[in-house]
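Support request, please re-run this one:
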Amino acid sequence: MKRFSLFLLLYAAVGLALTGSAVAQINSNPSFFNGETLVYEGKISKIIQGIAAADMTFTFGKSADADSFLIKTDARSKGTLLKLFRFSFLQQYETTVDPESFRALKTVKDDVQKERVRKSEAVFDYVEKKVTFTETNPKEPMRAPRTIASDLKGDTQDLVSGIYVLRTLPLTVGKVFELTVSDSGLVYQVPVRVTAREVQKSILGRVVCFRVEPEVFGNNRLIEQKGKMVIWITDDERRIPVRSRINTEYGKIEIKLKSVELRKQ
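Re-run finished. Output below.
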């Protein structure tokens, strides 16, 4: 169950971090998302159809010093998942983003899964070309921190900021982007394919969306098991992800947009 709650963090498992070739194709900047809040609900089905599993909120705003942007992400278990399976989790991210390049500068994460509690910080050093991840267990304060460092080859995103960068790319059917994932101090290469334009029912009504398929499952990939991920992103100016479907060993996860708030800060 190591990655179970991460799946429910919408499509954050995509963890998109762009290589140099993809960065040149970005057609927006962080200020475009300023003041936006997206709320999603995740359901998992295996034996029982459509178990309510989690609520997820993404909020994009300015940092306290107003010199950068801060993306706050909250994913927490709810409903039948708690009552029937007695499995709970809470994941909270704070991602600091550079206002010019859109690259991640720092990630702070609180991760609670039942009795397991972890706090971590990832620092992206583009001068030294290193990402350094440090994780601690608050229940064992005397235990040495777990530290992982990896090389960076260019501007990089974490799991959350990469979601927003994906929305800025010039999506067209047949397009393939080569992306890089940075998660917990490790770095992965992830092909992302735009496979179709399809109509989806959503809280925004019936909307035309790009069907995007990140290859995050498999050997030496972000998730080392069999599975598939699909994301539907609106084909309009805002490029809002309205739905994600993830097939895993634990069952099928459906994630849908519940509400959108747009408020300039």
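The radius of gyration is 18 Å. The CA atoms of residues 46 and 250 lie 7 Å apart.
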